[in-house]
From TrEMBL:
Phylogenetic classification of the source organism: Eukaryota, Metazoa, Chordata, Craniata, Vertebrata
Cofactors named for this entry: Mn(2+); Mg(2+)
Keyword Manganese: yes
Listed InterPro entries: Isocitrate_DH_NADP (IPR004790)
Residue ranges that the Swiss-Prot or TrEMBL entry lists as coiled coil: none
Family per similarity comment: Belongs to the isocitrate and isopropylmalate dehydrogenases family.
Protein name: Isocitrate dehydrogenase [NADP], mitochondrial-like
Assigned keywords, A-Z: Glyoxylate bypass, Magnesium, Manganese, Metal-binding, Oxidoreductase, Tricarboxylic acid cycle
């Protein structure tokens, strides 16, 4: 590993966790956990709909990864997670 920024699939990881947390919230009768999970998923979708996405999604949108350019069509994983953190606080 060379410490380069990545553009992995953070939404898949986030949704795996939020679905598990939402189920845990239902089992425990914890509406705050359910609300947090649903809010986090909604924020992820809103961010992508606003045009901020990682390379995997940009490739789907442009129909070819070869056409994707960092910071023009997609952001790296850290920047995507920063956008989620910023928008989750709203």
């Amino acid at each position: 590993m060379q410490g380069r920024p990545t553009s992995t699939k953070p939404i898949a990881s986030i949704f795996a966790w939020t679905r598990g947390l939402e189920h845990r919230g239902k089992l425990d009768g914890n509406p705050d956990l359910i609300k947090f999970s649903q809010t986090l998923e909604r924020v992820c979708v809103e961010i992508v709909e606003s045009g901020v996405m990682t390379k995997d999604l940009a490739g789907c949108r442009l129909h070819a990864l070869a056409n994707c350019k960092l910071n023009e069509h997609y952001v790296n994983t850290s920047d995507f997670l920063d956008a989620i953190r910023t928008n989750l606080g709203k």
